[in-house]
Amino acid sequence: MNIESTTQKHWHEKSYAKLVESIQYIAQNYHDVYALALYYYCDDDEPCFPKVELNFNTNEQFQAQISEASSQAEAKWNYAYWLQEPSWDIGGENDQLLAQWFEQTPFYYSQKQMEYAEQEDDALFNELLEKGEQFAQLFITQIIKMVQQLFSENILQDTFGKNLPVIIHELEYYEEPISWTKRANPSALINEFMDVCESDFS
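RE: above sequence
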């Protein structure tokens, strides 16, 4: 079965267009933005419903939070201290194109199968969970490609007047999501973030 399906490509195109539009809205309505973030999680903790929320932070917010954080670096790079503005999301339970893409992968299972497995069959439950996690990895790979595309098409440079780091993260900062950020961004942009991860967040 072809994982790189027409539906997946359509989902990528539509999601990327939404991401660009959301970034342009941020630039038009907020000043002194120094970083963007894509917060990754799964709706209902179901790996077949992967999702990212776009957010951002400003230097004004960073300065205001220094006294609340354990360090200046934490105030600047820990999402918990960022602006918690209404966010823009990609993916999730209500994304119909995402659901169609999931159905066309080798990792598909129905919600009825999962409900049965949760109640009656531990082995099947573990098998379906593994499938869902493999699909979630496909999703993250596409998110990384979208961020790379932002740089290759000069979207951030043209929108903000300079390139900004795009942090892809979960609630906790650990090796795997840090590697997503590293893959997605030009290395020079994330040197400061990577240094903080190795010290404050480790």
